[in-house]
Specification:
- The chain is an all-alpha fold and 336 residues long.
- Helix content is 69%, strand content 0%.
Length: 336
């Protein structure tokens, strides 16, 4: 269960610290916005502009030293589509060649495993769709501005409490209790949307590209996990837990370290960004094989079938990879 807690996205909180702490209108109690029905005090135009520009600039820290030219810079639409298709196809081919040299020897995936995996992917898509719709609705209602003006430690604490509470509630609810199960699962997804809604300050095209690249990365890795030998990558659980702990600690660095510690912040940013991509890519591989193992166990009656619980791990993998893709693409876009 510790891996689920550590896989919570911490990206947004690093932006919140940069707002001015001295502004009276910026110090709002987060629980008053979340649990009461009182109408929020309107924010000034200065605060709205400050919130937007602060979030859009959060991905610029210590990045100039490792920027590389973009292959699509200055290309036509056809060239960019060709580059994107080559990137997706090359990712799938490379992942299959590198990680999947030993395929299954049991005649392929049996129907019950395929059905279990397909249902899990369907719930993962429904969960991510819920997060996207809820984040859009919250952003349009002005939630993102109020969130950016709130103390980041309060956002982090309340966000973690709600996420962990709804997640554990979902895990511990029997699959036959549909109403409670799906209510808690929806609450978990809405909590993720509430924390990640400030991402909508960025350009829609950038978010769409990040989503496409995330789908390509997770799809290729999931294909490898589904076609590899049974339980071949389950040994990665321990190393990945250590890796995600390191990535989570590096995500707290901007909230703790002073701005004068530029070199330390630079390396913590690299660990969070590129180390996080590697760790959550590995978690995708591990989770797919774990889902197939649970499918075999449920077929034999050893565990109960629960695709909702399985989908949560894939949702967290997607969100963490997506956030890092957004940051990488934002770095490339600012070089133009």
């Amino acid at each position: 269960m510790a891996s689920f807690v550590l896989r919570r996205p911490f990206a947004i909180t690093s932006a919140l610290k940069q707002l001015h702490k001295s502004s009276p209108s910026a110090t709002r109690a987060f629980h008053q916005q979340l649990f009461t029905q009182r109408q929020a005090t309107p924010l000034t135009n200065t605060l709205l502009k400050s919130s937007r520009s602060t979030f859009q600039n959060v991905f610029r820290r210590q990045q100039s030293s490792f920027q590389v030219p973009s292959p699509t810079q200055g290309g036509t639409l056809g060239q960019r589509l060709l580059y994107g298709g080559a990137l997706v196809g090359g990712t799938i081919l490379a992942a299959n060649l590198v990680f999947n040299r030993e395929t299954r020897e049991d005649g392929g995936m049996p129907p019950y495993e395929r059905a279990y995996l397909n249902e899990t992917f369907m719930h993962t898509g429904l969960g991510l769709g819920t997060i996207g719709i809820a984040a859009t609705a919250l952003h349009r209602s002005g939630w993102s501005y109020r969130l950016m003006a709130t103390n980041p430690w309060l956002v982090l604490g309340v966000g973690l409490a709600l996420s962990i509470g709804t997640m554990y509630g979902t895990f511990n609810t029997h699959p036959n209790n549909y109403m409670q199960k799906y209510t808690l699962w929806t609450g978990f997804n809405v909590t993720q949307a509430a924390v990640l809604s400030p991402l909508l300050f960025l350009q829609p095209a950038l978010l769409a590209r990040a989503g496409l690249y995330t789908c390509a990365m997770m799809g290729s890795i999931a294909f490898v996990g589904a076609t590899a030998k049974q339980e071949k990558y389950l040994y990665l659980g321990g190393p990945l837990l250590a890796g995600v702990a390191l990535v989570a600690v590096s995500g707290f660095a901007p909230l703790i370290l002073p701005a004068t510690a530029a070199r330390t912040l630079m390396w913590s940013e690299r660990i969070w960004l590129y180390g996080g991509l590697a760790v959550f890519g590995g978690f995708t591989l591990y989770d797919v094989q774990k889902i197939l193992m649970h499918a075999r166990a449920s077929e034999r009656g050893l565990v109960r079938k629960d695709v909702v619980n399985e989908s949560i791990s894939l949702e967290l993998d997607f969100l963490n990879i997506f956030i890092r893709m957004v940051q990488i693409l934002g770095m490339q876009q600012r070089r133009k």
